[in-house]
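Hey, quick one: can you model this chain's 3D structure?
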Amino acid sequence: KVMVETGKSLSELASEVTIYPQKLVNIRVENSMKDKAMEVPAIAAIIEKMEAEMAGNGRILVRPSGTEPLLRVMAEAPTDDEVNYYVDTIADVVRAEIGLD
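Sure thing. Here's the predicted structure for all 101 residues.
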């Protein structure tokens, strides 16, 4: 549909997409806590703060593993330094609040 609407080929559309560096960190947590992590005020607050700092220039995803007692923290940002900062900052708070390591 987009190809028809824009008159562009798939390769032309794909060339307009910027691929950002990505980092994923898995944090061991109690199985009972992995689905409740977003209810922990400090975790919700740091994610909100990092998203505000990012200002729409990248993305953050924090989610429980479907099969293991893990919380997955992922970010994409324009530079490796930024992506490391976002993931490491969130992961530090998650570890301090509910991490097992």
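One thing worth noting: The radius of gyration is 17 Å.
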